[in-house]
Design brief:
The complex is a heterodimer of chains A (435) and B (357). By secondary structure, chain A is an alpha/beta fold. Among the domains of chain A are: 20-247, 3-Layer(aba) Sandwich (Rossmann fold); 328-398. Chain A is built from 15 helices and 14 strands. Chain A has helices at 83-90, 113-119, 137-147, 152-165, 182-194, 212-229, 240-246, 264-269, 274-281, 328-342, 353-361, 369-383, 387-395, 400-403, 429-433, and strands at residues 20-30, 39-41, 50-52, 56-67, 72-77, 98-103, 106-107, 120-123, 200-204, 232-237, 249-254, 257-263, 409-410, 417-418. In chain A, helix 5 runs parallel beside helix 6 (212-229), helix 11 packs across helix 12 (369-383) and helix 12 packs antiparallel against helix 13 (387-395). Chain A is elongated. In chain B, helix 5 runs antiparallel to helix 6 and helix 5 packs parallel to helix 8 (166-193). Chain B is built from 16 helices and no strands. The relative contact order of chain B is 0.12. The chains are: A alpha/beta (435), B mainly alpha (357). Chain A binds chain B through residues 1, 91, 93, 113-114, 117-118, 120-122, 124-126, 128-135, 138, 140, 143-144, 146-148, 156, 160, 170-171, 173-174, 176, 178, 192, 196, 209, and chain B through 1, 4, 7-8, 11-14, 195-197, 199-207, 210, 214-215, 218-219, 300-302, 312, 350, 354-357.
């Protein structure tokens, strides 16, 4: 009884080659669309008193990962960190701004659309709006088969088979979506995604709209189907327990970037990146004797249209690296001076350099003498209108977290990558920290 | 394999076509039955007058009551009586038979012109919203050009181009109506375009026309159907204006709109000349409205027309279905019971809300 399509590949034949290879994928959404919406009044910009506002929301900004056949790759992160955009961009629902997506060794642009659609499918988050209320579920499940050009009778056979496989009855073929519960609808969603027997299933928060007990059912079902068909899942979720339960490898995403990628079991036992650490420590602990949830990070996620310089997490990082010799308070003052120099706008700009310096740095303790000298030079240069020089002088003593955006690099045990300037186990990052 | 086949047969899929199922469900909806009856009566009248007029040369109607074209000047503006149940007009012609004969033009003009507008509007609006960008701009600007010119003038322009005949009248009025439908359809399609099931269909690799006409249009058609039933009356009256100006229906062919406008001048001395044709237009519009409402409810799988069950109704859907503001309170105050299980309240549940995440 083989009604599955022959283009589906055997999961074991090339298990060492990645099924999906994403390199430096970026997706930016322009804040303003259209010519006139983008024009901003700006008196300081040369001849015309208008500027062109080309800022964009950097939803996904340089994400790279590999997904092997039969593997479940989880992506976790706060709301708005770009998880869903990542999923949609990979599947071609959004046009990537930059970067490459290779599917089974070939670039997505080279694969004919029809073939790619046969080999990748998506399970949507909302079981209510992902099924067309006016069509029978049988026909909905058949959609990918219809897209692939199967005949009606064969499609029906397959749909009936699938209904049973996802734990529904064949008789449900002629029912409409509103006659089902949320969990059942999600099963229909799964059946639709699996009908064409794809190699890759992208599940965007597949269980977040469901009760906890139903969540487990769906996750187990997904797991069973994976074993049976050798599917690769890209599982997007904000629910850490879900990811922990099903994922083989997990990436933690923050503001459009991966900050840590690690095998699920190891990530949940030990995290290198402070963000991953804070995120995972926010999972409620079921043990009543343990203290409750402790939040290590405060504040809000910075705007994705204007992300912080350097490491994107530095504005909220509990382990922010202060340069040698600085006290916390002194570095804050120094940072404020640097930010204003960058904006070309010093407070009390008309005053003498000394008073400006005093206004910013006060008589702070904990400011290294060479940093103070740099500040003096910078304020002097700023007074002479040499802003670049001023900036340069100050930037020398800037924290590495603000100066450089750390790349995802292997750290600690094998198969783990993290993007942080902190030195871990003496592995490699100290040199980077001195840059 | 054989047992499998048996089970498939047991589940009885597609033993009945959608149209048959829809018509069967019609019996549970009293409103649409009344509508169906009214439309049916009109269709019978129209078919009868067509056969009688073209094949039998008005023999049957003359035998039954009177010749709709026969003038009788001494008997002009006769009040309704046993001889002339609806009176006579300014040439002494019997209004009752003229009304029966007028159903032919009225009904065809309503159905054909509204049909052209409906299909054209749905296609243009749907395509415009779905493809977006330059396609959207081009189509909508063209539609706005049509909208900017008063309907009657535009219809006259078309009639002048095509030449005055009844068929060109249908066509002209059909084209004039397209903009309204296109805009309603476009706004609906715009909100549906980004629903997840549309994306799922995209990911399924379905062709774009299938996505448009199977996923988007059916979910946004309800307001367009309402628009169609409402504009039926104005099209019949508008066509009368054209006939009056010498385009379209030519005397002595009876036409309700024409009779209405002719009778207007004598309204103070002979109210019946204008009253009965007006009444017929009203009944026609009512009939289409009732049938349209019923059909909309029946074609929506979320609405149960058969029996009253209250458990499946989502409050949000109900709310979204209502126009915002005072109607809520008004309705509740009047029908007393807050649950409207199978009525029009839940009818358009899924076009508007319900699916919102």
């Amino acid at each position: 009884m083989s009604t599955t399509d022959s283009t589906g590949r055997d999961a074991t034949d090339r298990a060492d080659e990645p099924l999906l290879d994403v390199q430096d994928l970026k997706k930016h959404f322009p804040v303003n669309t259209g010519l006139f919406a983008s024009v901003r009044f700006d008196r300081g910009s040369g001849i015309l008193p208008f500027g062109y506002d080309d800022s964009s929301v950097k939803a996904v900004d340089g994400v790279s990962f590999e997904l092997r056949p039969g593997e479940t790759f989880g992506v976790v992160g706060e709301s708005g960190c770009g998880k869903s955009t990542l999923a949609r961009t990979i599947l071609g629902l959004e046009e990537p701004t930059a970067g490459d997506v290779h599917f089974d060794g070939r670039s997505i642009d080279e694969i004919p659309e029809a073939e790619f659609r046969k080999r990748s499918q998506m399970v949507f988050q909302d079981p209510n709006s992902s099924l067309n209320a006016r069509r029978k579920v049988g026909h909905i499940i058949e959609d990918p088969l219809e897209g692939a050009g199967w005949e009606t009778e064969r499609r029906r056979q397959r749909a009936l088979e699938l209904l049973e496989q996802v734990g529904l009855k064949r008789e449900y073929y002629t029912r409409y979506p509103h006659e089902f519960s949320g969990g059942q609808r999600q099963r229909i969603n799964l059946a639709r995604a699996l009908s064409i027997n794809p190699d890759l299933v992208v599940a965007d928060e597949p269980v977040s709209g469901l009760d906890v007990s139903v969540q487990a059912q769906i996750l187990n079902l997904m797991d069973d189907l994976q074993t049976e068909y050798g599917l690769a899942y890209l599982l997007i979720s904000h629910d850490l327990s879900v990811v922990r339960y099903v994922a083989d490898r997990v990436a933690v995403m923050y503001l459009g970037e991966f900050v840590e990628v690690a095998p699920a079991a190891r990530l949940f036992s030990e995290q290198y990146h402070p963000y991953a650490n804070s995120l995972l420590s926010a999972v409620p602990n079921p043990d009543p004797d343990e203290p409750g949830v402790t939040t290590r990070i405060g504040g809000n996620v910075p705007s994705a249209s204007n992300p912080p310089s350097g490491c994107r997490f530095h504005t909220r990082c509990p382990e922010f690296i202060h340069p040698d010799g600085f006290s916390v308070d002194a570095y804050e003052r120094y940072e404020r001076l640097l930010a204003d120099v960058r904006d070309r706008n010093l407070e009390d700009g008309t005053g003498a350099p000394d008073s400006i310096l005093a206004a910013y740095l006060d008589d702070s303790e904990g400011l290294p003498s060479n940093a103070r000298r740099a500040a003096e030079r910078a304020v002097q240069a700023a007074a002479d209108d040499k802003w670049d020089e001023a900036e340069q002088a100050l930037a020398e003593h800037e924290s590495v977290c603000q100066a450089n955006n750390p790349a995802l690099e292997p750290v600690g045990a094998s198969d783990r990558e993290t993007a942080c300037h902190l030195p871990f186990d003496g592995v490699g990052s100290e040199e980077r920290g001195r840059e | 394999m054989s047992s499998e086949q048996g089970r498939i047969a047991d589940t009885s899929f597609e033993t009945e076509s959608t149209v048959v199922v829809t018509l069967k469900k019609l019996k549970y909806s009293p409103t649409s039955l009344v509508g169906l009856f009214l439309i049916g009566a009109l269709v019978v009248m129209a078919v009868f007058s067509t056969i009688d007029n073209f094949l039998l040369d008005r023999a049957v109607i003359t035998w039954l009551h009177a010749d709709p074209h026969a003038m009788n000047q001494p008997n002009r503006y006769a009040a309704p009586s046993m001889d002339h149940p609806m009176g006579t007009d300014q040439y002494g012609r019997d209004i009752l038979v003229r009304i029966i004969y007028g159903s032919r033009t009225a009904l065809t003009i309503g159905i054909v012109a509204v049909g052209i507008s409906f299909v054209g509007g749905v296609v243009i609006g749907g395509v415009s919203a779905y493809f977006g960008g330059y396609v959207d701009d081009a189509l909508m600007r063209a539609i706005e050009v049509l909208y900017a010119i008063p309907g009657l003038i535009l219809a006259m322009i078309f009639m002048a181009i095509f030449g005055p005949s009844l068929y060109n009248l249908f066509l002209a009025y059909g084209i004039v109506g397209i903009p309204a439908y296109a805009r309603v359809m476009r706004s609906e399609a715009l909100s549906i375009r980004d629903r997840q099931y549309v994306e799922a269909a995209k990911l399924a690799g379905l062709p774009r026309r299938t996505i448009l006409f199977r996923e988007i249009v059916p979910n946004g058609i309800a307001p367009v159907v309402v628009q169609a039933t409402l504009s039926m009356g104005s099209v019949i009256i508008g066509a009368a204006a054209l006939s009056f100006l010498g385009f379209g229906v030519q005397p002595p062919t009876p036409d309700w709109g024409r009779m209405l406008s002719d009778g207007r001048t004598a309204l103070l001395i002979a109210w019946w000349v204008a009253f009965f044709p007006g009444m017929m237009i009203f009944i026609t519009v009512m009939g289409f409205n009732m049938l349209g409402d019923g059909l909309r409810d029946i074609m929506d799988p979320k609405t149960t027309v058969e029996s009253v069950e209250t458990d499946d109704i989502e409050l949000e859907a109900l709310r979204a279905d209502e126009p915002p503001g005072e109607t809520d309170a008004f309705d509740d105050a009047h029908d007393g019971s807050p649950t409207r299980a199978d009525g029009s309240g839940a009818g358009t549940a899924d076009e508007q809300g319900g699916d919102r995440s």
